[in-house]
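FAQ

Q: What does a record look like?
A: Structure on top, sequence underneath. For example:
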């Protein structure tokens, strides 16, 4: 028999775990690179750039435009790479709390 109070309890626990998971996304990170590793950007699960590494060979006034393009490419790659990690982090944090509902995507709750 369906127990409404149990369901409310599960929803409340799910909300608490989801909030904890979202707050801990700063610890999830991913790095993207461009220019065969000459530029590397690291982002966290909050989609913030936390580290930017530039090979010293690239730091030349004449190559400013190329360097800018490589930085943008590295940051975009890191942002693309972090998406699956965010979804997995949220999935693990809330595993077993709610029934498996087809089409229910925790990543859309961000």
């Amino acid at each position: 028999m369906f127990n409404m109070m149990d369901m409310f309890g599960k929803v409340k626990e799910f909300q608490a775990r989801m909030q904890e998971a979202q707050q801990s996304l700063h610890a999830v990170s991913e790095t993207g690179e461009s220019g065969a590793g000459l530029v590397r950007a690291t982002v966290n699960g909050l989609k913030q750039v936390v580290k930017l590494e530039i090979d010293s060979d690239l730091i030349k006034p004449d190559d400013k435009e190329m360097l800018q393009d490589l930085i943008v490419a590295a940051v975009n790659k890191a942002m693309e790479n972090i998406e699956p990690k965010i979804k997995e982090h949220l999935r693990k944090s809330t595993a077993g709390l709610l029934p498996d509902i087809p089409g229910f995507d925790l990543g859309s709750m961000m």
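Q: Is there anything notable about this one?
A: The helical segments are 4-23, 64-93.
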